[in-house]
UniProtKB/TrEMBL annotation:
Mechanisms controlling activity: Activated by a monovalent cation that binds near, but not in, the active site. The most likely occupant of the site in vivo is potassium. Ion binding induces a conformational change that may alter substrate affinity.
Sample GO molecular function, one term: metal ion binding
Active site residues per record: 256
Subcellular location: Cytoplasm
Name of the protein this chain belongs to: Ribokinase
Family: Belongs to the carbohydrate kinase PfkB family. Ribokinase subfamily.
Record has Magnesium as a keyword: yes
Stored InterPro entries: Carboh/pur_kinase_PfkB_CS (IPR002173), PfkB_dom (IPR011611), Ribo/fructo_kinase (IPR002139), Ribokinase (IPR011877), Ribokinase-like (IPR029056)
Ligand binding (substrate): 15-17, 43-47, 141, 256
Broad EC category: transferase
Gene Ontology BP term (one): D-ribose catabolic process
Subunit structure: Homodimer.
UniProt keyword list: ATP-binding, Carbohydrate metabolism, Cytoplasm, Kinase, Magnesium, Metal-binding, Nucleotide-binding, Potassium, Transferase
Length: 304
């Protein structure tokens, strides 16, 4: 590894995604006809690991799958991207599964069945993996005590901790305040403030949301705003990063593309502003293609 560069250690989930496309998403109690169904690898941890690895980061993953016929498909693109999977456990629980509905405008709704991801324990946090990591990345799809253990292990090792609090889980606030950055959308940002016992500002005041998170003790914040880009909040102020204009095909996994690209860039030695600018472009690329991991760019793909 070159000077200033280290590995990205992802502690997170791996799923098999079952995606159904339909003209519009059904309402409560409603049945609609679908257009297609596709099974592909997913899970926030795996998505973010693939996004970073495809862009050239050295990525190690700690996670778990089952001993069933969904395990290999769930890991297929991680392996193809070169992610180190030696710390992904094979457990008796079934491989995690996500059921995804995508409408004609690219909007989606998702139900996740955790399976083996719910059995990832703090004991699986490997000190040897931490020793070579420049960044440790966590999300909300594994048990909160394991994510907290990863945050504390990163702190103790002097390694940067990045938390994508998605979905929002009931976790010790320490895992949130250690994040540098905390990566959230506006709904997750409000959830993070609730964990920190802070009243959120009005829903449409994004800068106030970022400022409130910083005031509550979070080290830095990357607030994703979809097609509007992102806000980066740090001790020296708040920076707005615009997103390029693209045609949206499928927004599934775009937030994971952003987070993986951000964490991978930080592990590669980029500063936080440059990493967020890069991540916004990667997220914009991802929405122009269908699927999750299959939509992520490689280092050779031109970004918008």
């Amino acid at each position: 590894m070159s000077p200033g560069r280290g590995a990205l250690l992802v502690v997170g989930s791996a799923n098999l995604d079952i995606a159904v496309t339909t003209q519009r998403l059904p309402g409560p109690g409603e049945t609609v006809l679908g257009d297609s169904v596709v099974a592909s690898p997913g899970g926030k941890g795996a998505n973010q690991a693939v996004a970073a690895a495809r862009l050239g980061a050295d990525v190690i993953m700690i996670g778990a799958v089952g001993r069933d016929d969904r395990a290999e498909p769930a890991l297929e693109l991680l392996a193809a991207a070169g992610v180190d999977l030696t710390r992904v456990a094979r457990l008796p629980e079934p491989t995690g599964t996500a059921l995804i509905e995508v409408d004609a405008n690219g909007e989606n709704s998702i139900i996740v069945v955790s399976g083996a991801n719910a059995a990832i324990t703090p004991a699986m946090i490997d000190p040897a993996a931490l020793a070579g990591a420049a960044v440790v990345l966590g999300q909300g799809e594994i048990p909160a005590d394991t994510t907290l253990a990863a945050a504390r292990a990163a702190r103790d090792a002097g390694t940067r901790w990045v938390l994508n609090l998605a979905p929002v889980i009931d976790i010790d606030p320490e895992a949130v305040t250690l994040a540098d950055p905390l990566v959230v959308n506006e709904h997750e940002g409000a959830g993070a403030l609730a964990l920190l016992s802070v009243e959120p500002p009005p829903a449409d005041d994004h800068e106030a949301l970022v400022a409130a998170l910083l005031a509550a003790g979070v080290r830095s914040v990357a607030l994703t705003l979809g097609g509007a880009g992102a806000l980066l909040g740090a001790r020296d102020g708040i920076t707005r990063v615009a997103a390029p204009t693209v045609e949206v095909v499928d927004s599934t996994g775009a937030g994971d593309a952003f987070t993986g690209a951000l964490a991978g860039a930080l592990a590669g030695g980029a500063d936080l502003v440059a990493a967020v600018r890069h991540a916004v472009r990667v997220g914009a690329f991802a929405v122009t293609r269908p699927g999750t991991q299959l939509s992520y760019p490689s280092a050779d793909d031109p970004l918008p």
